[in-house]
Specification:
Catalytic activity (chain B): N(6)-[(R)-dihydrolipoyl]-L-lysyl-[protein] + NAD(+) = N(6)-[(R)-lipoyl]-L-lysyl-[protein] + NADH + H(+)
Oligomer: heterodimer
InterPro entries (chain B): Class-I_Pyr_Nuc-Dis_Oxidored (IPR050151), FAD/NAD-bd_sf (IPR036188), FAD/NAD-binding_dom (IPR023753), FAD/NAD-linked_Rdtase_dimer_sf (IPR016156), Pyr_nuc-diS_OxRdtase (IPR001100), Pyr_nucl-diS_OxRdtase_dimer (IPR004099), Pyr_OxRdtase_I_AS (IPR012999)
Strand content of chain A: 15-25%
Distance between the termini of chain B: 20 Å
Shape of chain B: globular
Distance between the termini of chain A: 59 Å
Largest interface: A-B, 44 and 47 residues
Helix content of chain A: 25-40%
Cofactor (chain B): FAD
Pfam families (chain B): Pyr_redox_2, Pyr_redox_dim
GO molecular function, one term (chain B): dihydrolipoyl dehydrogenase (NADH) activity
Number of strands of chain B: 23
Strand order of the largest sheet of chain A: 1-2-7-6-4-9
Strand content of chain B: 15-25%
């Protein structure tokens, strides 16, 4: 900061009348610290005490320009503002080491200043040496990623048959080039998979080992042919589908209802099956009476029980994302379906296996309040790994739930009812029983898995002391 | 207000003025309030030297030299019989674009029997293939950009699911807007009784022309005065083959028949920039090809640099500067669009590009063929019709052609729709007996990117050059949108406004704005230039808080002018 000085030419433009405009303080001027005798290095200046690296906004001068003392040479962007940086010495800007738009750490050489024209060549050679040695730290990264790229691309020569129209020429799209520069990927080593063999942003991302950002927001139904086809097809479909009933009232979906509708249709692509299990709840009911005054709800009890069972059966807590693999979730997040203002939402009790009953109940209360106020954050309703749906309070004895996309299983809980049971000795007794019914994705969860899980769940419910621990 | 009117009437020079306001009280009994001068005068007489029509003049920045008889009463006549004997019409305008439309409306108001000849569709380039449909596309791109910017949305506390678009829907929006504006334009002329004559207009001789399909069915008409307002068409340099599908001009692009994955835009002026905004928002990648050494030529360099950092660098855009596209071949036979680049100076081959589409935005060429200019000995210069500062057409011998004017893109003075309209109004003023010269330096221009760029007057280098020649001092001051409450509330603090002025007398030489709604903000500055308002006066004008207009408020207040306020303290008005 000590090197900063305000030149008159710049500060004359800033006589602000209002204090509010103070932080607007525009480009001020810093003098370049320069050393060495004949060929001087121009360093990235430290423009503030917190600055660790700076970005070259633009070189005011270009290579070969004659500089005189006090002239602005380069504009550097710090965390706050752009600064004109000027030189202390006369000379010739021999070489630019760090180009416009690139960043360099504070103190790193960004350009070379020669005293006379004879030294320009020498300076240039030096700059070349510097630029080849400087990114050498990054070079291994490129080496590493290159084989990955070839490996990925190797099986695709059939697809990449459409070679560039100009043979031997590397064609990369503007964004691909930008990404390559950013991630230091050598674009010449990539094999393009785009049309006409061009290198696409995805190719660069793959080479850099980054999962490509979801492209969903770029183009929705764009292809004219596709949209024409759908518009032509849909009226025909509509004509045969539903007869109009006079006096009917069409109410469009709310956003939440649209989301539910979308999810439900999506769920049809998952092969599911269901397993039911009767669970005796006398002990649970007794426990519930005991902990109810402490604010514990039945939802919390059931969620906790499910979570504890899931700990022992991680596959039921898993997800099948691509139809090829199991994704084992590291935490057990129990989503609980709640009917709300004509909609349905699933607030999530995160890490339900780790929280105790009381915390869980408290958390649940908060979530429900937030849901009513429509203030749930996305991770509070879409991070579930297992869903619980309870219609028992309405007297429903059993029902069947639809598996939400992205989860492995959902549990539908019916009402607990006094039921006559005969034990193995033939003695009759009346016990409270509830029917739970689990729907699961059969691609990853098989019948035996579910049965074992339900058995564990039933044991926990029948001996609920562990829930309070 | 008072001083502005006195200025425009007393001084023939559009720029340099002195003694602001000193003559006003001597010349006219000044009305006390706006209401007084606006309404009462128009309702009554033409005896008072200060009449309603001169108010109107000031609005269009036309500077009359002599004040002849007022024609206010003529308005009542409508588009009736030609006032001068022997002619079919008082005024015939060739071309029903925005320029011709503006002229026609004003001519009817002035009591002229007016006809307008249009060989294509009413509205011309602006309405059908230019400003209007492009604004529809830019409205879409602006919203897309905002919705896609998750960071921006989150910082406002908003959550938006992935935004998408339907290409046909966007294209329809642009098309519907154009038809709507076109019918508005047609109706406004029909309602006033302007005769719309269909066909190509050709000048046969002095005050005589024909119109029609160019066959024997053509009709010949005579007119006291003729205005050429035939506009322009996209300029396609030689070597470029336009097929309308993969190699296109703005005419095709505005129909948005496809959104290519990768499009090269030849030319980085207004048109190219606006299309880069549209295409990148809709998911395309863009490559600029610019013949000059830097992108965005024509803009104030400082504004251009900042705009580049916001509009180009962070987007999916790369560029080639200092190169010509010497040959562009459309995609065919399974090959992509191929562009051959040569060095703009050495003409040596530099590179070839392969892209999905190419948009030619290298400028516009005047549309003056078939006008029959040879019949009156007029030679076009690079297609433009030569005119003097009063839009009077100059013939091959350097003499003025009587009763013939040319406005808008066809004369090439300032290729902007609103400039054409202002020129048209200026001409109508002249033919109705008032001499006027339009101050082109007061005409604002805007580029509707996100954020927008706008400007009026001189750029800084232009101002410095002029200052050196004429020996005056130039100062520059800047304000940032970052300090503006409204801009920050919108989370759009990116941008700056720049004022170039004379510190010795407070004259505004140029204003350049880059930032949210810049195109709307520029008019405070352009009106000030048009009215001759000085900084020392305008800095006391009040701006509503919090609004974006305070960016300009701060700008004027930050200027350091060496003279004090020129207008006297107004009489207090009880509130």
């Amino acid at each position: 900061m000590a090197s900063l000085s305000f030149s008159s030419s710049v500060s004359s433009s800033t006589p602000f009348l209002r204090p509010s405009a103070f932080f607007l303080k525009p480009r001020s001027v810093s003098r370049l610290p320069l050393v060495r005798a004949k060929i001087r290095e121009i360093f990235m200046p430290a423009l503030s005490s917190t600055m660790t690296e700076g970005k070259i906004v633009s070189w005011v001068k270009s290579e070969g320009d004659v500089l005189s003392k006090g002239e602005p040479v380069v504009v550097v962007e710090s965390d706050k503002a752009d600064m004109d940086v000027e030189t202390f010495y006369d000379g010739i800007l021999a070489a630019i080491v760090v180009n416009d738009g690139e960043t360099a750490p504070v103190g790193a050489p960004i350009g070379l200043l020669a005293e006379t024209e004879d030294e320009i060549a020498e300076a240039k050679a030096k700059a070349a040496a510097q630029s080849s040695s400087a990114p050498s730290a990054a070079a291994p990264k490129v080496e590493e990623s290159a084989p990955v790229a070839t490996k990925v691309e190797a099986p695709a020569p059939a697809v990449a048959a459409a070679a560039p129209a100009t043979p031997g020429k590397v064609v990369a799209t503007p964004f691909a080039k930008k990404l390559a520069k950013q991630h230091k990927v050598d674009i010449n080593k990539l094999v393009g998979t785009g049309p006409f063999g061009r290198i696409t942003p995805e190719d660069v991302e793959k080479a850099a080992g980054i999962t490509p950002a979801p492209k969903a927001n770029v183009v929705a139904p764009a292809a004219p042919a596709a949209s024409a086809a759908t518009s032509a097809a849909s009226p025909a479909k509509a004509a045969t589908s539903f007869p109009e009933i006079p006096g009917s009232n069409v109410v469009p979906f709310t956003t939440m209802q649209s989301a539910v509708s979308k999810n439900m249709v999506e769920s049809l692509s998952v092969p599911t099956f269901r397993v039911g299990y009767p669970v005796s709840t006398d002990a649970l009911d007794a426990l519930y009476e005991k902990v109810k005054p402490k604010g514990v709800t039945m939802t919390a009890l059931l969620a906790k029980a499910a979570a504890m069972a899931l700990v022992q059966h991680p596959v039921v807590n898993a997800t099948c994302k691509d139809g090829k693999s199991f994704t084992y979730n590291s935490s057990i997040n129990i989503a609980v379906a709640v009917a709300i203002n004509g909609g349905l939402i699933t607030p999530v009790l995160q890490d339900a296996d780790k929280l105790d009953l009381y915390l869980l109940s408290q958390k649940w209360k908060e979530l429900v309040e937030k849901a009513r106020a429509k203030q749930l954050q996305p991770q509070e309703y879409n991070s579930g790994t297992f869903t619980l749906s309870n219609l028992g309070m309405f007297g429903v004895d059993r029902f069947d739930a639809i598996l939400p996309p992205g989860q492995g299983a959902i549990m539908a809980v019916g009402a607990s009812k006094p039921t006559v049971v005969a034990d193995k000795d033939g003695f009759f007794s009346v016990k409270n029983k509830m029917l739970v019914n689990v729907t699961a994705d059969h691609r990853i969860i098989y019948g035996a898995d579910l049965a074992a899980f339900l058995q564990t769940f039933s044991k926990i419910i029948e001996n609920p002391e562990s829930l309070t621990m | 207000m008072q001083s502005a009117i006195s200025l425009s009437l007393s001084s023939p020079s559009p720029i340099a003025r002195s003694g602001v306001g000193s003559t006003s009280n001597a010349c006219w009994p000044m009305p006390r309030s706006l209401r007084f001068c606006g309404l009462r005068r128009e309702a009554f007489d033409s005896a008072a030297s200060f009449d309603a029509s001169s108010l109107r003049l000031a609005r269009f920045n036309l500077q009359p030299k002599q004040s002849t008889l007022s024609k206010v009463s003529a308005v009542l006549k409508g588009n009736g019989a030609p006032s001068s004997s022997g002619f079919d019409y008082d005024l015939v305008i060739i071309g029903a674009g925005v320029g011709g439309h503006g002229a026609a409306l004003h001519a009817v108001e002035k009591g002229l029997k007016t006809a307008i000849i249009e060989g294509d569709v009413v509205g011309g380039t602006c309405v059908n293939r230019g400003c209007v449909p492009s604004k529809a596309l830019l409205a879409v791109s602006g919203r897309m950009r905002e919705l896609q910017n998750e960071h921006h949305m989150n910082s406002l506390g908003l959550q938006v699911a992935a935004a998408g678009y339907n290409r046909q829907g966007v294209a329809d929006h642009a098309n519907n807007l154009a038809s709507k504006i076109r019918s508005n334009l047609t109706n406004s002329m029909k309602a006033l009784g302007v005769d719309i004559l269909t066909g190509v207009g050709t000048i046969l001789g002095p005050q005589k022309l024909k119109y029609g399909k160019g066959d024997s069915g053509d009709k010949t008409i005579t007119a006291k005065d003729i205005i050429i307002a035939t506009g322009s068409v996209p300029l396609v340099p030689k070597g470029i083959e336009v097929d309308g599908k993969t190699v296109i001009t703005s005419d095709h692009a505005l129909k948005l028949e496809s959104v290519p994955d990768w499009i090269a835009i030849v030319g980085s002026g207004y048109i190219g920039l606006e299309f880069s905004d549209v295409y990148t928002a809709l998911g395309s990648e863009v490559t600029f090809i610019e013949a000059l050494d830097q992108l965005m030529p024509g803009f104030d360099p400082e504004i251009g640099k900042l705009a580049q950092r916001v509009l180009i660098n962070p987007r999916k855009i790369d560029s080639y500067t200092g190169v010509f596209a010497s040959k562009i071949t459309p995609a065919k036979d399974g090959k992509p669009v191929q562009i051959e680049l040569i060095d703009a100076k050495t003409k040596e081959p530099k590179d070839t590009l392969e892209v999905d589409a190419a948009l030619i935005a290298t400028g516009r060429a005047p549309f003056t063929k078939g006008l029959g200019l040879e019949n009156i000995n007029v030679q076009t210069q690079r297609g433009f019709v030569p005119v003097d500062e009063r839009m009077r057409v100059i013939d091959a011998n350097g003499k003025l052609v009587p009763h013939l004017y040319c406005i808008g893109d066809a004369n090439g003075k300032m290729m902007l729709a609103h400039a054409a309209s202002a020129q048209g109004i200026s001409v109508v003023e002249q033919v109705t007996g008032k001499d006027h010269v339009l101050n082109h330096l007061s005409i604002p221009a805007a580029c509707f990117t996100h954020p927008e760029i706008s400007m009026v007057g001189l750029t800084e280098p232009q101002a410095r050059e002029k200052a050196q020649k004429e020996g005056f001092e130039v100062s520059v001051t800047k304000t940032s949108f970052k300090a503006n409450t409204k801009a920050l509330a919108e989370n759009e603090g990116e941008g700056m406004a720049k004022l170039i002025y004379r510190p010795d007398n407070g004259e505004i030489l140029g204003v350049h704005i880059f930032g949210l709604h810049a195109a709307d903000l520029i008019h405070e500055a352009s009106n000030a230039i048009a009215m001759g308002t000085r900084i020392q006066d305008i800095k006391f004008a009040v701006h509503a808080h919090p609004t974006l207009s305070e960016v300009l408020d701060e700008l004027f207040k930050s200027a350091k002018v060496k003279v004090s306020t020129s207008s006297a303290v107004a009489e207090p008005v009880p509130v």
